[in-house]
Write a structure and sequence with these properties.
Keywords: Hydrolase, Metalloprotease, Protease. One of its GO terms (molecular function) is metallopeptidase activity. This is Zinc-dependent metalloprotease. The protein is about 70% helix and about 5% strand. The protein has helices spanning about 5-15, 25-50, 65-90, 90-95, 105-120, 150-160, 165-185, 190-200, 205-220, 240-270, 275-285, 290-300, 300-320, 325, 340-345, 345-360; strands at about 60-65, 125-130, 145-150. The chain has a three-stranded mixed beta sheet, with helices on both faces. The protein is globular and about 65 Å long.
């Protein structure tokens, strides 16, 4: 049974996505070359600043256009969602009022909606560490992949009116920090995947409910006048689900906040205009058109903005109090990750993780 027609998702997303900015071919090629180079430069800065060591070779980032980002993310969705949808129970879906979703027509409709969501996001994402890749049959490929969306980076630096090389390196610092988090901490990828799977399976949703959420978001892309207070996270309501959601939020807040902290802390030494970039970029984050507001509600992206802020504040305070080496104890095991309460009260994490370790050493 196929609940989501993945090929339709790709084709729809690629068809709907807006073209990138007008760039001369020579400028486009130069941007790709420079982004590859700067991702490698950034990796060295992140390694030196954080004291973390990747356990697998990284190499330069993969540079993609908007359709390339869509294709990569459909691959990631398949890795995460297909096992979950199977565990949710195909028979429950077949017996539900939404049972027609199991038909070829239903799976195509769902593919269209997912493609619409991805077409929206593909115009906004600057880069990402793709954590969930299809397995490599030869076992040689790295566990994740760093991608940078060249048209979006060029478009954003133009809109902000900032120095292109400085901005590109600044973005690379953030994304390379994410790659370092997962390549230097071998248990982290599996931990995040297990949390996501546990969270999805703990809900009262069956597969058709999950699909309905994707449909909501897809419809919002097609119809910008739709509003409402819901987002894709509102299904998590029981105490058990709220606790799981808190664990997911804490991990993502740490990862995003650490990325923001590193990009800004390394910035002054290697990105001369970092203060201008950060000020203008933050203002851009806060300025939304109506469609953006709707999509951020539906996709829970307002929560992500809060994650950046709370996570970065946690990292800043811990590093200021105990230094980078003791902060890096956070990557020791799942038990040393901060809880959501500790993200918001960093001294509690220091007392739980750093102080006892210092006493026993």
């Amino acid at each position: 049974m196929t609940v989501i027609d993945w090929d339709v998702a790709v084709n729809t997303g690629v068809r709907l996505v807006r073209p990138g900015p007008q760039v001369d071919l020579s400028d486009a090629r130069q941007a790709v070359v420079q982004l590859r180079e700067l991702s490698t430069v950034a990796a060295g800065h992140v390694r030196d600043f954080t004291g973390m060591n990747p356990l697998e070779p990284s190499g330069p980032a993969v540079i993609v256009d908007r359709p390339g980002w869509i294709r990569a993310n459909v691959d990631g969705f398949r890795v995460v969602l297909e096992p979950v949808l199977e565990q949710m129970g195909a028979d429950r879906l077949n017996n539900s009022p939404a049972g027609n979703l199991t038909s070829a027509v239903g799976s195509r409709i769902t593919g269209v909606q997912l493609g619409a969501v991805l077409s929206y996001l593909a115009g906004r994402v600057l880069g990402q560490y793709e954590l969930f890749l299809p397995p490599d049959p030869d076992g040689h490929a790295p566990t994740g992949r760093l991608t940078l969306v060249a048209p979006n980076i060029v478009n954003t630096e133009r809109e902000l009116g900032v120095d292109p090389r400085d901005f590109r390196l600044w973005v690379c610092l953030h994304e390379e920090t994410h790659r370092m988090q997962f390549t230097a901490t071998p248990w982290l990828r599996g931990h995040v995947q297990d949390l996501m799977r546990e969270l999805l399976l703990s809900t009262e949703m069956d597969a058709s409910d999950l699909i309905d959420r994707l449909r909501q978001a897809g419809e919002a892309v097609a119809d910008a006048v739709r509003g409402g207070e819901s987002n894709l996270l509102t299904a998590f309501q029981t105490p058990e689900q709220s606790a799981l959601m808190d664990r997911v939020t804490a991990v993502m807040s740490l990862a995003e906040g650490h990325g923001d902290y590193v990009m800004d802390a390394v910035g002054p030494d290697v990105v001369p205009s970092v203060e201008t970039i950060r000020t203008r970029f933050q203002k851009r984050r806060e300025t939304l058109n109506p469609l953006d507001r709707i999509m951020r509600q539906l996709l829970g992206m307002d929560l992500k903005m809060k994650q950046y802020e709370e996570g970065a504040a946690f990292v800043r305070q811990v590093v200021a109090q105990v230094g980078m080496a003791d902060f890096n104890r956070v990557w020791t095991s799942p038990e040393t990750l901060p809880t959501l309460e500790e993200i918001r009260a960093p001294s509690q994490w220091i007392e739980r993780v750093v102080r006892p370790a210092a006493i026993t050493e």
